[in-house]
Amino acid sequence: MQLLLRRSQAKTTFGRPVFKLWAKLEFEGDEDTLIRHYRFESAMLIEAEQPGLLRRSILVGGGVWLLVLMVLGGVSLQLGGIVGFVAGLAAGWLFFDRTRETVFVKDLIHGRFFDCYSVIDLARKEAWLGLITSFLRQVMESARHWDGTEAMPIDALSKQEAKFVVIRGL
């Protein structure tokens, strides 16, 4: 498995630089067979809570709907409403999909762009993606050997270590 990374730079409408990172996984040998067999493509690699993202996506979609309704409303109110609804739905979904920080395996199978607002964010995102793809790699390796029985010896801990485990939970 290889993680392909491509970096580029653009400017926002206000002239600020935005760094774009494109990431994609390339599989070797039977790794793509493992992905399909165990349905890893729908697995979530990174779960990020973004409380305002859904609300902002709805506002973007609603704004596009109103804009299309105003433009096409002069021709036909019904046509403007229907086309505006479809355009608003598409714009809201596109905004949500491009802005979300949650990463699924299928995102990296097909390739995904990430917007970073500083070089530090770009480096952090690259390290983050490297870490989660190495985690996926290890899960895939263990999936090759899921059949059978394995004996794991559990050693007794010292009194102090045992207290720490009980208090902390791990």
Concise structural overview:
The chain has 170 residues and is α+β, with helices and mostly antiparallel strands. The chain folds into 2 domains: 1-48 and 102-147, no CATH class; 50-100, no CATH class. It is built from 6 helices and 5 strands; from the N terminus they run E-E-H-E-H-H-E-H-E-H-H.
Plain-language structure description:
It is a single chain. 54% of the residues lie in helices and 18% in strands. It is an alpha+beta fold. The chain folds into 2 domains: 1-48 and 102-147, no CATH class; 50-100, no CATH class. The radius of gyration is 23 Å and the shape is elongated.
Helical fraction: 40-55%
* Gyration radius, in Å: 23 Å
Number of helices: 6
The ordered H/E elements are EEHEHHEHEHH
Shape: elongated
Tell me the major beta sheet.
3 strands, antiparallel
What's the number of domains? 2
Strand content: 15-25%
The residue-averaged pLDDT reads 89
In terms of per-residue confidence, which ranges show pLDDT below 50 for 5 or more consecutive residues? none
Query: Biggest sheet: strands side by side, in what order?
Result: 1-2-5
How many runs of DSSP E, i.e. beta strands? 5
How far apart are the termini? 32 Å
Key traits:
single chain; two-stranded antiparallel sheet; 170 residues; alpha+beta; 2 domains; elongated; 3-stranded antiparallel β-sheet
Topology summary:
Blueprint: E1 2-11, E2 17-26, H1 31-37, E3 44-46, H2 53-72, H3 77-99, E4 103-104, H4 105-110, E5 112-116, H5 119-143, H6 159-168
Antiparallel strand pairs: 1-2, 2-5, 3-4
Helix pairs in contact: 2-3
